[in-house]
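[audit] Reproducing an earlier prediction to check determinism. Same input, same settings, fresh worker. If the tokens differ from the archived copy the diff job will pick it up downstream; this log only records the rerun itself.
[audit] input (113 residues):
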Amino acid sequence: MSTAIDDDLWSAIGDPTRRRMVDLLLSSNGGTATSLSQQMTVTRQAVAKHLAVLDRAGLVRSAPAGRERRYQVDDAQLARAAAQLASVGSAWDARLQRIKRIAEAIQQTRQES
């Protein structure tokens, strides 16, 4: 599994409305733009636009359901996002540990002077 950072994926996830939609889709095992808009404070048209962004990022997939489309979270893409987040977290942990060691070395040098 690649952990290269996908800017489109993180741009899609970065919006709180879209994160809420992903949460709702996960908790209800999918839904339509209409069903999501009934659970949110945005219009059905706004939900449809957000779903299009999530679809382009590969976070959701859709299938026809009558006159609408039924959306499901793509588990593989969500796992990829989680792996990327873990990778970024590890990189930042390593950076912060290096900064801490440098700060401690500086403080030790000052105390010895």
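[audit] rerun output stored. Observation attached for the diff report: The two ends are 50 Å apart (CA to CA).
[audit] end
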